[in-house]
Design brief:
Layout (H helix, E strand, L loop, with lengths): L1 H8 L13 H23 L12 H18 L3 H10 L6 H21 L1 H7 L15 H4 L6
Helix pairs in contact: 2-3, 2-5, 5-6
């Protein structure tokens, strides 16, 4: 979620928030557009991705682009105007939106792991090497066993 918020903060729009977009309408659109984009991605694009030859970080970029297109096509708000509303109302700080996006991010990570388990393990710091030697394997470092 931190990477997502950092990416959003680097995209601050130069336009003002449209008057028609109040906070509740913006929350509604961000959730609905991401639901639509995520479902379309799973149906139309996921099977076409080659996990061994593509950067799986393209998944959130594509989903974001689909979501912004959905808002434009179905509600007439240009990407810059919609982004202005996201910033104006600090939508990604809203607990309801944060929980929704975190749920989608977890689903996205599961899809990425299914597409390329080895790359996902490496990205999570697991790698494919042998388990660590010696010492206590429990606690916060080693697994689910008793702590140190």
């Amino acid at each position: 979620m931190e990477i997502f918020n950092l990416g959003i903060s680097m995209e601050q729009p130069s336009t003002k928030c449209p008057e028609e977009l109040n906070a509740s309408k913006t929350i509604e659109l961000v959730k609905a557009s991401n639901d639509f984009a995520f479902d379309l991605f799973k149906k139309e694009y996921l099977s076409q991705m080659d996990p061994m030859n593509q950067d799986m970080m393209m998944m959130p970029v594509l989903i974001s682009a689909i979501a912004h297109d959905w808002v434009k096509i179905n509600h007439g708000f240009a990407e810059e105007d919609f982004k202005a509303a996201l910033f104006h109302y600090k939508i990604y700080e809203n607990p309801e939106v944060a929980q929704h996006m975190q749920h989608k991010q977890m689903e996205l990570m599961q899809l990425a792991a299914q597409q390329n388990p080895m790359a996902m393990a490496a990205a999570m710091g697991g790698g494919m090497g042998p388990p660590p030697q010696g010492g206590n394997q429990g606690g916060a470092i080693g697994g689910m066993g008793p702590g140190m």
